[in-house]
């Protein structure tokens, strides 16, 4: 069994990541690649919890700006995350990973309710656990759900994947070519500098609970595995300088 830096992780996958290069929907080729990496990580003896976004199907904040009631728009977004979770669950099980999906909103026909102790037990049995439905509350992003679930399942690190961005920069490197990348930064510095790591509620949760975050490009070769092994990839956000 390969020696890893972390024994239990929470992986945050955005909806856009699951969509790949598509403008809308799910890219099954991307699902297969992600699932293969997750299987190798679990085979290393690492417990993997996963929070999925839904931006490839529905964006609540954007819909609200277009006139949809914000609470209704956010609940629709939660349903989008369940669609993504079921697709990822199918891909993982076809790869040979026993998987359970737990939802923060009740969809008993397709997913378990979120129960912390049951989720931890699944992880102890080497099952992947996908957390869908965000936190189950409007106005809360899936970044906040990722931070919350990571703390609840006692994950040692939150792995934040990005699309074609290999870490945290002083500005968006796709718009500002001169932006500089941080190798390490503290939670407080990220909050004070208003860097686009995740929303401030999620970042504050990580700060208060001293949960480190690794931000990296999902598209890089073996990115998830390298992050779990503790290799220098992306940007590390921690409580220490």
From the structure above, extract its key features.
single chain, 241 residues, alpha/beta, Carbamate kinase, nine-stranded mixed beta sheet, two-stranded antiparallel ribbon, 9 helices, 39% helix, 19% strand
Describe this structure in words.
By secondary structure, this protein is α/β, with parallel strands linked by helices. The protein has one domain (8-238): Carbamate kinase, CATH 3.40.1160.10. Helix content is 39%, strand content 19%. It is built from nine helices and eleven strands. The chain has helices at 15-19, 28-43, 60-65, 70-95, 116-124, 142-152, 187-192, 200-208, 223-229, and strands spanning 8-13, 47-52, 99-103, 112-113, 128-132, 157-162, 168-169, 181-182, 184-186, 213-217, 235-238. The strands form two sheets. It has a nine-stranded mixed sheet with strand order 4-3-5-2-1-6-10-11-9, with helices on both faces. Strands 7-8 form a two-stranded antiparallel sheet. α2 packs parallel to α9 and α6 (142-152) packs parallel to α8 (200-208). The longest helix is centred in the middle third of the chain and has 26 residues, at 70-95. The model has no long low-confidence stretch (mean pLDDT 93).
Number of domains: 1
Kindly name the structural category: alpha/beta
Q: What is the level 1 CATH name?
A: Alpha Beta
Q: Tally the helices: what do you get?
A: 9
Taken from the alpha-carbon principal axes, the silhouette is: globular
CATH architectural category: 3-Layer(aba) Sandwich
Task: Give me the strand/helix succession.
Answer: EHHEHHEEHEHEEEEHHEHE
| CATH H-level superfamily title | Acetylglutamate kinase-like
Q: Please give the share of residues in helix.
A: 25-40%
Distance between the termini: 32 Å
Please tally the β strands and state the result: 11
Mean pLDDT: 93
* Major sheet summary line: 9 strands, mixed
CATH topology: Carbamate kinase
Biggest sheet strand order reads 4-3-5-2-1-6-10-11-9
Radius of gyration over C-alpha positions, nearest whole angstrom: 17 Å
Q: Approximately how much beta-strand content do the residues carry?
A: 15-25%
- The low-confidence runs, each spanning 5 or more residues with pLDDT under 50, are none
């Amino acid at each position: 069994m390969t020696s890893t830096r972390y024994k239990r992780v929470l992986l945050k996958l955005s909806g856009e990541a699951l969509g790949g290069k598509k403008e809308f929907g799910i890219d099954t080729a991307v699902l297969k690649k992600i699932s293969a990496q997750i299987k190798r990580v679990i085979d290393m003896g690492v417990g993997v919890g996963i929070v999925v976004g839904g931006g490839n199907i529905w964006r609540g904040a954007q819909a609200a700006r277009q006139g949809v009631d914000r609470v209704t728009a956010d609940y629709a977004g939660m349903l989008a995350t369940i669609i993504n979770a079921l697709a990822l669950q199918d891909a993982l099980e076809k790869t040979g990973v026993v998987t359970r999906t737990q939802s923060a909103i009740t969809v008993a026909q397709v997913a378990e309710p979120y129960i912390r102790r049951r989720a931890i037990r699944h992880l102890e049995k080497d099952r992947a656990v996908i957390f869908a439905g965000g936190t189950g509350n409007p106005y809360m992003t899936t970044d906040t759900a990722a931070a919350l679930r990571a703390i609840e399942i006692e994950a040692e690190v939150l792995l934040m994947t990005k699309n074609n961005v290999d870490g945290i920069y002083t500005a968006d490197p796709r718009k500002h070519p001169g932006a500089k990348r941080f190798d390490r930064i503290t939670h407080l510095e990220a909050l004070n500098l208003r860097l686009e790591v995740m929303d401030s509620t999620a970042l504050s949760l990580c700060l208060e609970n001293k949960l480190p975050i690794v931000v990296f490009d999902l598209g890089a070769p073996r990115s998830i595995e390298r992050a779990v092994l503790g290799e220098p990839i992306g940007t590390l956000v921690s409580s220490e300088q």
